[in-house]
Amino acid sequence: MSLGTALAIDSGELILNQQEFQNVELKVLSQDQIIVAPEGGCSAGSCGGTDDQLSHLPEDIRRRVHNHPCYSEQAHHYYARMHVAVAPACNIQCHYCNRKYDCANESRPGVVSELLTPEQAVKKALAVAANIPQMTVLGIAGPGDPLANPERTFATFRMLSEQAPDIKLCVSTNGLMLPEYMDELLRHKIDHVTVTINCVDPDVGTGIYPWIFWNHRRIKGRKGVQILIEQQQKGLQMLVERGILVKVNSVMIPGVNDKHLKDVSRIVKDKGAFLHNVMPLITEAGHGTFYGVMGQRAPTHAELNALQDACAGDMNMMRHCRQCRADAVGLLGEDRNAEFTLDKIETMEIDYQSAMETRARVHAAITEDLAAKTQINIVPPESLDAHREYRPVLMAVATTGGGIINQHFGHAKEFLIYEAAPDGVRFIGYRETDLYCFGGGDCGESESLLAKTIHALEGCEAMLCSRIGLGPWDALEEAGIQPYGEYAMEPIEAAVMAVYQEMIDNGDFDVDVTAGVKASV
Ligand code: CLF
Ligand code: SF4
User: Fold this and answer.
1) CA of 341: how far to CAs of 95, 114, 261, in Å?
2) Within 6 Å (CB) of ligand 2, which residues are found?
3) In the predicted model, what is the mean pLDDT of residues 377-387?
4) How high is the pLDDT of residue 30?
């Protein structure tokens, strides 16, 4: 079967040629397909990225994460998630949260989600699963804490696992009630749990949590934080003992817990957490949070990357989190929730049996596409000269998914950031263009979108997209970012490495190490 004709991903839509899928069976990626690079080069899907870091894991675990867009960096190019906002209440207070907004532990402050009953949530999930067949995971992540709303959360999971057994279930919690609801989580076959752990030291925690609600009482200060930490650690241990995959989220708060998070990473790894997701604090005075009002700053891109790198020595790091909303729908980085409002899903006729068959075919096609991509060699730079320095280079990529460069520069709301170096290509993170300021800098209201985009791409030396106009081209060049449109529809990592090779060929790294001077420009 020609994958090129069977699977086309454009603007986040997956378009299928039904005939091409006849006789195609759903397969799970084999160990080799996921991780093994072809001899003499890196595989496109795994070169230095998160999936490569997962290569030491047993096959059954990799099978559980291969289509989870948050637990596998590779999967997030292909598979979508959805959140249902069924959990309004919370049992703690975080200084980065304003209850008017979604839970900032697992979603960004923004517009308040449309609160759903469990029945409405299930109806919505079926509608999304039928219309976005690459949606594999349903998570409950707010707008409050799922385990502070146990009836609503578990009623949703129960109905969903009965009616849509092909959807993975996922939950994200502050951890306070984790030990209490362990049996319920197991009963509903929740395979992926995220716990937000911002500290393991109560003295650090008092700068983050003013109070918790515990045994019908509000407990303030250190005592409350101590209980929260104990419950989180106990819950983490219980989850691991029961074979549930645990991701730990931590919000990086400069001057509060940034120095402490490396210890957190080491400790949660020792306890068996699967993945650590260090997210930047999102803070704006307009959100009305304690930090926003107090002028607490967010980390810069460089600070976040440095901390993620520092923690990476201790454990698998997630770097592709989009801090999505509690009602997010679609691939990470896109939000198709507006297509599935309550009034719209009321009008949809869903035949879920038939939808499941389509979903299986779509997943099989993605599997084949991924397998094909693992056959693509990323050619490492040729003719490296021992007397020259080849520094790593950051490159921005515009993509709508599918692991290829397929987005127009002007349509990109975010860019994936890759680092190219002589030993390969690795995914670093993502940058948004216009949604919010990432701390520091001068991205004020008056800044044009183009200026904001260029600002967001600070530190990048190349930008790869499917198309770009002349004006933005010139502006990027002027800012020291070389645009590339010629790699349209090419696999990302291979294209990034090809640009790196071009830079070498152009003499961009012509520093004579032995002479210690720049040989040419
Ligand atoms: Fe949702 Fe979270 Fe499950 Fe993913 S999100 S409950 S693990 S399905 Fe993912 Fe969104 Fe980041 Fe969360 S990108 S905020 S890590
Ligand atoms: Fe807000 Fe979530 Fe913290 Fe609760 S756990 S206070 S909803 S950020």
Assistant:
1) 31, 8, 38
2) 90, 92-94, 97, 103-105, 144-145, 174
3) 64
4) 26
Rounded CA separation 340/427 (Å)? 31
Residue 143 DSSP one-character state? B
pTM (predicted TM-score)? 0.79
Residue 167's nearest CA partner among 142, 192, 195 is 192
- C-alpha 324/C-alpha 81 separation (Å) is 10
What element of type H or E holds 271?
none
Give the three-class secondary structure for 443.
Answer: coil
Contacts of 358 (CB under 8 A, 6+ apart): 16, 130, 133
CA distance 104 to 324: 9
In contact, 75 and 324? CB cutoff 8 Å: no
**Average pLDDT of the residues in 423-450:** 65
Do 231 and 177 form a contact (C-beta atoms < 8 A)? Answer: yes
Strand residues in 151-207 grouped as ranges (E): 168-173, 192-196
Ligand 1: list residues with CB < 6 Å: 70, 81, 83, 106-107, 137, 139, 141, 170, 172, 192, 194, 247, 277, 321-324, 332
Q: What are phi and psi of 28, to 5 degrees?
A: -100, 140
Which atom of ligand 1 is nearest to 141's Cα? 6
Q: What is the 3-state secondary structure (H, E, C) of 195-253?
A: EECCCCCHHHHCCCCCEEEECCEEEEHHHHHHHHHHHHHHHHHHHHHCCCEEEEEEEEC
Q: Which of 372, 404, 397, 381 is nearest to 503 (CA)?
A: 381
Q: What is the pLDDT of residues 281-293, one digit of tens each?
A: 988 777 788 999 8
